[in-house]
Amino acid sequence: MTVFWKLIMWAMIVWLLPLLNAYFKNECKPKKNIIAGVTLPYSAQDDAAVLALLEKYKRELMLNSWIMLAAAVPSLLLRGHGAFMTYWITWAILICLSFYIPYVRCNKSLRQLKEERGWLRTEEAPQVVTDLQAAAEEMRWLSPWWFLPPFIISLVPLAFDRTLWWLWALDGAMVPVFYLCYRYLYRNRAEVVDENSERTMALTRIRRYNWGKFWLVMAWATGLFNVGMWLTLENIWLCMAVILLYGVVVCVSAVGIEFRVRRLQEKLTADSGQGYYVDEDDRWIWGIFYYNPNDARLMVNARTGINSTFNLARRSGQVLMGLVLAMLLACPLMGVWLMGMERAPVELEVTETELVGSHYGGEWSVALEDIAEIQVLAERPKLRRVAGTGMESALTGQFSAEDWGRVTVCLDPRTGPWLLVTAEDGTLYLFGASEEGIVETIAARLS
User: Fold this and answer.
1) 431 strand-pairing partners
2) Which residues pair with 277 in a beta bridge?
3) What is the pTM of this model?
4) Phi and psi of 365, rounded to 5°?
5) For 31-71, what is each residue's pLDDT tens digit?
6) CA-based R_g, the chain, Å
7) Alpha-carbon distance 157 to 23, whole Å?
8) pLDDT of 235-250, one tens digit each?
9) CA dist 377 to 261, 348, 416, 430, Å?
10) How far is CA 447 from CA 162, 171, 175, in A?
């Protein structure tokens, strides 16, 4: 992997640092009477001790950012896709976890201060807080017809390119998944903050509207992304631009919507907490994990923003959270898998019925009876990857060549010669092997 591509990958991931810093720093601003996951009365929000704890928290966030930025630099010295990918995925997971350390420290300190200052609510809180007037307001869902156009758009490549049908179908299937997420991950519960029902209904409408807006943006962005990928597969730079644009649109939309909701929640509840206010701190472990045995729901809305989370008092919630964490922690194995691919040889063999090229469990073959012509090439043509792997030790999958068009490839670019096979239907295959002499032997046998 060249330094140029390392810098591109570095730039595509390192932006997580300032984003996470801004996200966790935003927890210092009171929203719905909550600061860093702790519910405080209005009078306590400007308390000197509270402000001192928050300043300490901000300094710890900044220190954490600089430490994790320094930890990203050694990746530029690594060689190989697999090692680089393993390092970066591990780094991305660690920075996400590292920001929770100062957050939890601040949460625990604020809770202790809350208890010492007598800010705990003395009356017994209901098991699940509801506002009957707000709850009676009818929920207006976006029609599924809004998601149909992007779904149809996402399927356009299937009509023109059947070679990569699985790729187009997978991307297209994400659009109805987004609708299902919009429709069934939202918990239809009013955003109760205090006794003010008008405030509750306004907060509830804000969350509902922006929840639907987020998933609709995701659906349209994914539908257009599928078409953009199909149109630019033959040009690596345009294809990279489409991927980058999609990532920017998704991230900017998600971050913009989340912070907009938080700003509105902050504004609408700026004067709350002077009389009665809702305090559910005892049901939120460290202000992060929801645990309420008296709540039958599996999923609940996060306290601020538009997110949702699991009720860990439910066995199903514990299982799902465990699966999410296991998948997250298993992500570095993708890099380990890539390292195995880099070390695995490309093999070529002839069976009784097929010519088969294989690499690390993947196979690309052509039936012997379908072969119309074979050529041994001493010089490998310039190839552009369409879909597959493009490593220094192996090129596999669908590629494009200037004079040939689309070609199925399975070869080791370091070891020649290479075998060009033309099928009866005009399909081209380019094979090679890591072991020297294999291509010549097979070519002689087929001739």
Assistant:
1) 410, 419
2) 194
3) 0.82
4) -140, 160
5) 999 999 999 999 899 999 999 999 999 999 999 999 999 99
6) 28
7) 37
8) 777 888 898 899 889 9
9) 61, 15, 8, 9
10) 31, 42, 49
